[in-house]
Design goal:
The structure holds 2 protein chains of 2 kinds. Chain A is about 80% helix and about 0% strand. Chain A has 11 helices and no strands. Chain B has one domain. The chains are: A mainly alpha, B mainly alpha. At the A-B interface, α2, α7 and α8 of A face α3, α8 and α9 of B.
Chain lengths: ~260, ~260
């Protein structure tokens, strides 16, 4: 039992390392995941900072520090989507069929890919928080708050990765995976990613309550700003873990279904 | 008929145009990204930052009306950049080499893809405008305002197509795709995208002032922003900016094309 678990953990580790290595080998894949969110952060922080003058905007130490939580969420979404695209690429290229023929548990194939997503997300979050800090963001929550926010976002990346992998396994099309890129932003924009929930338009305010990412971004914001009124970190953790567990289950089911069909 | 070639310009440009339009049916999901992304952005951004229109100095009390022209330009820009990505694919697959040895004037080789991009751009531009107006955007500029918005969109699509084609003939690989899209992102968002010049703060205030796309946005905003009336004063800076950008990026594309043929 223990020996089997150790073997599967080696499989998960190896597949996770492969996923990360491939990501860094293709520089063009790094651009959207590492540069795009920072670019949007810079534009939003400068372009909408007048919003601090609105009556109900909460008191925060820095606007950049407030909106960076949205950047973490955006990074998580892109890291997750990248996992799906990479999986579709493996399916189209035939590598995945060879993995299916290997004497390993199906679950390990999914967990291995998600381990790579987790590793990528951790690097991303550290990068985003550091760059924002250099450009003037302040984190009253200190190192612990920043680490907590990064963990929330990285777990969310696993959840989104699970959903993307489930779609990739069901469709096997890289073209289609690239086409769902805009839909990922639906999840971002229906959460209070860059503005407080109370300042969203009434319709979006109501929709946001049903989006688990709302609780993740508010939790991360609460941790970074050390202000529980901005968001409950435990609620954020519950949302991130719940999403990750649900999405991983979906991906495993999709894989079993595919294995039965092929 | 060109003095240096023996193929009539009209039918050649027509053939390239039709071939370029064929991408829509040939590539699955070709229109999805360029059409859905600006729509998602329209709904998301107006929901997130809608309260910004309540700030003193904002030229309209409808943030949706402020953001509609931005999303039209974004859709047109991505459709334009896609012309570069398609050309890069043609170069990689060897198709473009065959065109280079054909008795056809060089400018016609890029005229067809540009015309195709403009035609394709009409889909997201119209979709964004119609949806925006249906969900509460204001049409304050009347028919002349709509004309200004379409001129701005067609012009910006041409700029983006020239930029994409220039990148394609310089790098000659599809891997330059993110660079093409990033150029459009930079052009659009480093402008008065989210708030008017008056409300911009920090580095973006200076960048947006010198970014010609800010003038193009003003040209388009005559359609929907009540504080920007249809007038020559709001029209000519945008037209001059478009002419300048088309001339610059067009020249860049032609230089790259000439070097390629040597």
């Amino acid at each position: 039992m223990i020996a089997a678990a150790a073997r599967e953990s080696r499989v998960v580790g190896a597949l996770g390392r492969r996923a990360l290595t491939l990501q860094f080998r293709r520089a063009q894949l790094l651009m959207p995941t590492f540069v795009l969110p920072l670019f949007l952060l810079a534009v939003i922080a400068s372009g909408t900072s007048a919003g601090r003058d609105l009556r109900d905007f909460p008191e925060v130490s820095s606007y950049l520090g407030f909106v960076v939580a949205g950047t973490l969420l955006q990074g998580a979404l892109l890291a997750g989507l990248t996992a799906g695209i990479a999986m579709a690429s493996d399916i189209e290229g035939g590598f995945f069929d060879r993995l299916l023929a290997a004497p390993v548990r199906r679950t390990s194939l999914v967990l291995g890919r998600l381990a790579g997503t987790l590793g990528l997300a951790v690097l991303q979050m550290a990068w985003f928080l550091t760059v924002a800090l250099i450009f003037g963001a302040s984190y009253p929550g200190g190192v612990l708050g920043a680490v907590g926010a990064a963990i929330l976002a990285a777990l969310t990346a696993v959840g989104i990765g699970g959903l993307a992998i489930a779609i990739a396994i069901r469709t096997g099309s890289m073209n289609l995976m690239q086409s769902i890129f805009p839909f990922v932003f639906v999840l971002l924009f229906t959460a209070p990613a860059f503005f407080p929930r109370d300042l969203l338009t009434p319709t979006l305010h109501d929709i946001a309550a049903y989006n688990p990412l709302t609780y993740v971004v508010e939790g991360a914001r609460g941790l970074l700003q050390d202000d529980a009124s901005l968001g409950d970190p435990w609620l954020g953790l519950a949302a991130a873990v719940g999403l990750a567990a649900f999405a991983t289950g979906l991906a495993v089911l999709a894989l079993r279904d595919r294995a039965r069909r092929t | 008929m060109s003095s240096r070639t023996n193929s009539p310009a009209g039918p050649v440009a027509w053939a390239f145009w039709i071939r370029s339009l064929g991408e829509v049916t040939r590539v699955r999901g070709a229109l999805v990204g360029t059409s859905i992304a600006p729509l998602v952005f329209l709904l998301g951004t107006s929901g997130q930052f809608g309260r910004l229109s309540g700030l003193p100095g904002f030229p309209t009390d409808s943030y949706l009306s402020w953001i509609i022209p931005l999303c039209c330009l974004q859709g047109a820009g991505f459709a334009g950049a896609a012309a570069g990505a398609n050309l890069a694919r043609d170069i990689e697959q060897g198709w473009f080499d065959r065109l280079l040895v054909a008795p056809v004037a060089r400018p016609l080789l890029i005229l067809g893809p540009v015309l195709g991009a403009i035609t394709r751009a009409m889909v997201p531009v119209t979709l964004v405008l119609v949806v925006g107006l249906l969900i509460g955007g204001e049409l304050t500029g009347g028919p002349l305002g709509i004309l200004a918005l379409y001129v701005a969109s067609v012009g910006f699509c041409t700029v983006a197509a020239m930029w994409g084609i220039a990148m394609a003939v310089i790098f000659r690989t599809q891997q330059a795709g993110p660079l093409m899209q990033m150029g459009v992102f930079l052009g659009v968002f480093l402008s008065t995208a989210y708030t008017p010049q008056l409300l911009l703060k920090g580095w973006l205030e200076d960048v947006a002032r010198f970014n010609p796309v800010s003038h193009v946005l003003e040209l388009g905003r005559q359609a929907t922003v009540s504080g920007i009336d249809v007038s020559l004063a709001h029209t000519w800076p945008g037209l001059v900016a478009l002419a300048g950008m088309i001339a610059f990026f067009g020249a860049l594309a032609m230089v790259g094309l000439r070097r390629m043929g040597r």
